[in-house]
């Protein structure tokens, strides 16, 4: 039945489904995972970094983390080339707003603008949905620290903790069990690393397989920080040791 209705993004099936949008979401579920956690001190984003070749200079490439403005950043899962187009759109929107109103764009307004663009690609013929999902982390004077997730359909929602990409259901299950309302930034960093360590297809998590960033406040300024291997070392050691201890107890 699906084959009769999946050749166009603008055609509904008799069950009321848009198959091309569902296929885009399915493509994202096979992409590298990304996790976001909201804490009382900031927002943490972490993503799986897939190294395709040992010749790749990993220190000069960032596949998953993007800075959209001084107060907002994003992590992506899906087709990176599609993400680049939307990231540039978001950056342009943020700069236009700041130029016009002399203040940073509210985080949700930026997310909504980007999702409107994504929704347009599901409604007009000759276009295909963007094969990418986003996690947005930011701060504004209206709602403080915020974490949003969006998908190819143009839907978005605010979250305390969420995951996208491969094994996202297992990741969200761990987040439901371990997330607490009053998490500190340090605890949030350990939580996202723990989630990725349990959902990635590797025995131990190392700095070259991970991208980690945070959005925090320093004084009256918002700071976006990408963690390097040296900064991630103690966090990874702590999580790997806890995981080894759990394995020893289970055996």
Explain what you see.
The structure is a single chain. By secondary structure, the chain is α+β, with helices and mostly antiparallel strands. Helix content is 37%, strand content 25%. It contains six helices and ten strands; from the N terminus they run αββββααββββααββα. The chain has helices at 19-28, 80-101, 107-120, 168-178, 185-199, 229-250, and strands at residues 34-38, 42-48, 65-69, 72-78, 132-140, 144-150, 156-158, 161-164, 210-218, 221-226. Strands 8-1-2-9-10 form a five-stranded antiparallel β-sheet. Helix 4 (168-178) runs antiparallel to helix 5 (185-199). The longest helix is centred in the middle third of the chain and has 22 residues, at 80-101. It is globular and about 55 Å long. The mean pLDDT is 88.
Question: Top keywords for this entry?
Answer:
251 residues, alpha+beta, five-stranded antiparallel sheet, 10 strands, 37% helix
């Amino acid at each position: 039945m699906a084959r009769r209705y999946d050749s166009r993004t603008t055609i509904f099936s008799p069950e009321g489904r848009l198959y091309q949008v569902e296929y885009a979401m399915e493509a994202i579920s096979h992409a590298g995972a990304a996790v976001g956690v909201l804490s009382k001190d900031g927002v943490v984003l972490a993503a799986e970094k897939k190294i395709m070749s040992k010749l790749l200079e990993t220190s000069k490439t960032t596949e998953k983390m993007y800075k959209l403005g001084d107060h907002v950043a994003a992590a992506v899962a899906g087709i990176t080339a599609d993400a680049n187009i939307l990231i540039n759109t978001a950056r342009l929107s943020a700069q236009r707003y700041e130029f016009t109103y002399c203040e940073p764009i509210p985080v949700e307004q930026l997310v909504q603008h980007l999702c409107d663009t994504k929704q347009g690609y599901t409604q007009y013929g000759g276009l295909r949905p963007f094969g990418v999902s986003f996690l947005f982390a930011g701060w504004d004077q209206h709602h403080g620290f915020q974490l949003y997730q969006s998908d190819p359909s143009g839907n978005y929602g605010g979250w305390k903790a969420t995951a996208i990409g491969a094994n996202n259901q297992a990741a969200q299950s761990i987040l439901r069990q371990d997330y607490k309302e009053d998490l500190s930034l340090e605890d949030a960093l350990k939580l996202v690393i723990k989630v990725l360590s349990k959902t990635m297809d590797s025995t131990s998590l190392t700095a070259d397989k991970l991208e980690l960033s945070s959005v925090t406040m320093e004084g009256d300024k918002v700071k976006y920080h990408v963690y390097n291997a040296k900064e991630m070392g103690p966090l990874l050691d702590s999580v790997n040791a806890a995981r080894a201890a759990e394995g020893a107890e289970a055996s």
